[in-house]
Amino acid sequence: MCEEVGIKFIGPSARVMDAMGDKINARAQMIKANVPVIPGSDGEVHTAEEALAIAEKIGYPVMLKASAGGGGKGIRKVEKAEDLVSAFETASSEAKANFGNGAMYLERVIYPARHIEVQILADQMGHVIHLGERDCSLQRNNQKVLEESPSIAIGKTLRNEIGAAAVRAAESVGYENAGTIEFLLDEASGKFYFMEMNTRIQVEHPVTEFVSGVDIVKEQIRIAAGQPLTLKQEDIVLKGHAIECRINAENPAFNFAPSPGKITNLYLPSGGVGLRVDSAVYPGYTIPPYYDSMIAKIIVHGENRFDALMKMQRALYELEIEGVVTNADFQLDLISDRRVIAGDYDTSFLMETFLPHYQEKE
C-alpha cells in the first residue's frame, strides 16, 4: 500500500517481505544461494499422508512448521510416526487460525542445537554487511527468553562463515534495510543450517547495537532515505559482551500464565555505563490482556561475558514492578544458574533441564 501511494516504507520491499516471510519460499531461495538448509520437504506439505512419507525418508524426530508462521505458532515436534497425523492437523489448524494460511512444511529436527541469528544491513545500492551474531538458545515453547552477543559457542572462523552465509542470503533476494538470518548450529558437527529470515528489526537488536557500536534504527532511516552504507564489513569489530532479558507480565509459577492488570509501583534499574532499559510502562499503567506479555527489556554491556552477567544480575535485583506478576525473579534465577554462567546450554536446556528443577523449587 505504501508503494502504491508513493510513501517510502522503512524496511524491505513488499516483494522481498513476501518472498522471505513465506518460509517455504525462503528455503527454496536459500538452496539457490548456496546457504545450507535443514533436510526436509521441498515445498508445501498438504496432507498428513504426504508428511508421513517425507518423515520416513529424512528420519525422526521432525518439526512441522507453518509456512506463514512466527512467534512459536503452528509448530509441532514429532518424535514418531504414530503421532504425526494428529500433530499435522493441529498445527495446520492453528496456522490457519493465526495467519489465515494452513500451509505446512517439514524439517528434520536438529536438536539440541544453538539458535544463532545474524543481523544484517543492506542499502539500496546492493551493499550488504553483517553485525555479528546473537545467541538465542534460551527459549520456552519456541519463544526467546534471553539473548546475548556474541555467542560463546562461536569462534572467529565460524563467525566469518556464518556471517558470509547471511550476507549471501540477503544478496540473493535483493534485500534492503535491516534484517536477521536465523540459523541452527549443531555444536557436535560444527555445521549450521538456515532456519528463517526475519524481514524486520527484532526485539533483541539492542545487544547487537551494544557490541557493534552501530545504531541499527538510525541506519534503517538512512537506508530508507537512499543513503549508502557508511560502514564496510572490515569496519565492524565486536567489542565486549551484551545480554538482554525480556521482562514479561506472566506468572512462572502457573505455567507462565499472562498477568494483565495495573502497575501500582515501578522502579526500573538505572545508572552506569552499559545499562539500557527499553519500556513504555509507568506507575498506573494498565497492561491489557490482548497483546504480547512483554513489558520491558533490560540490556547490559560489559567488557566480557562475566562482566555482563554480573551487571544483569544487579539490574534484575534493582527492578521493582508491583501490581502484576512478572518473570523478573525467574530471569534472575536463570542468569544465576551455573550452566548459564558457564555458557553450557543449548535449545534443550531451559525446557528440559532448568524448568523442571525451577518448578520443583517453586
Describe what you observe in this structure:
This protein is 33% helix and 27% strand. The protein has 362 residues and is an alpha+beta fold. A hairpin with a 5-residue loop joins strand 4 and strand 5 (128-140). Helix 3 crosses helix 4 (84-99).
Name some characteristics of this structure:
362 residues; 27% strand; single chain; alpha+beta
**Beta-strand percent range:** 25-35%
Q: What oligomerization state is this entry in?
A: single chain
The helix tally amounts to 11
Spans where pLDDT lies below 50 across 5 or more residues: none
Would you tell me the structural class of the helices and strands?
Answer: alpha+beta
Number of strands: 17
Strand order across the biggest sheet? 8-7-4-5-6-9-16-14
Shape: globular
Main sheet attributes: strand count, strand direction, barrel closure: 8 strands, antiparallel
Quickly describe the structure.
With 362 residues, this protein is α+β, with helices and mostly antiparallel strands. The chain has 11 helices and 17 strands.
